[in-house]
């Protein structure tokens, strides 16, 4: 048995595979975005017979067919979805290279080229966010969840000097984490994982635009201080997952500074605009944060799992993750400190950063600026077209996310559910239903760089058609 197969076979398989993948990549648009799934049907398609050997081609056929039939096609231009992109082609190539070389990034000495590329990318992206170079540090993570957990751990190590040795025993009271009611649940999960518990998270009220209200934040902090609690971290969301709201980080940073609280900016999605000349102003003030979460696998159009934790506190990651008993800040210059095992949650780890490095080599900053700006433009156009067709917007963001419903049905969950389910049924496009405040809206986000005005028109036509059917079915006549 040879795991390598033979050279001749391999060449045939590479060709076979590239034909299959190219066919999917080039023709994503002509398949349905989604199938209304049934678990029994899915399980029927999974071959679990490992007593028979088969050709790699046969295995490829099975898997490609299964994924084609039973997945929401996030690379489709009519996927107006969550922040799951179509992967740029160079980033797909990157994953193939990484799998083949399988470099081990745990320690510098095993993969210096790869470790240094990731280090350089963290510096470059950190600069785009406005951090100053000698202070920038960070790590590639598997996602925003790991990056937010990293942030919480660094905040704990920053606040409690004995935390590395004593863990939660070094914590003298009840640490509190603040984030807005519209923030991602990754924060609460991080609190749960690291032993502080769900109740350590306080959700701060948001205004009509889903942004955190700074004076409410300060009131909560004062209230907690009066009870002897320890304000530990504030999470400012720089583009909420639902409505795309950007918290007022400048005002929040003043409060963070006043009470010496670690400020974390969750820019998992919205951070991408710092790569554009025109829209980078939207993230102004983010450089005041102590740390930042930024997902490349959202708006930078690279495959999962590619995210970054970036900080302006050079020594905090080593303090948090180094396993040497007595961490000395001067060790930071040692190249061994660049390896992920002393620097992040992970030990063995893959070359995550290559998925960002390859498209940057191919398209440059300019390519990202153009692509992200195009998506911003499509978002503005979508909003205008919706309004022109009697759909009312219930969110207010410059980011390309529209939360909307029919003017008449803003308080009726049945309507948005009907539209959502109807799309699942027909597979022509994908969007979700999502409540903004007390309004049951539909949410469409431009996640795909291939989405053009023609695709927007297609969505609007489908929405109009479905709304008309709903009205007819419910005997609703618009006067
Ligand atoms: C997506 C998202 C997360 C979670 O990130 P993953 O990459 O899914 O782990 C956290 N915060 C925000 C604001 C997000 O949009």
Automatic annotation (TrEMBL):
Keywords on record: Aminotransferase, Decarboxylase, Lyase, Pyridoxal phosphate, Transferase
Recorded superkingdom: Bacteria
GO MF terms, alphabetically ordered: transaminase activity
Identification of the protein by name: Aminotransferase class V-fold PLP-dependent enzyme
Family membership noted in the UniProt record: Belongs to the group II decarboxylase family.
Keyword Phosphoprotein: no
Cofactor(s) essential for the protein: pyridoxal 5'-phosphate
InterPro entries per the UniProt record, alphabetical: PyrdxlP-dep_de-COase (IPR002129), PyrdxlP-dep_Trfase (IPR015424), PyrdxlP-dep_Trfase_major (IPR015421)
Organism for this UniProt entry: Jejuia spongiicola
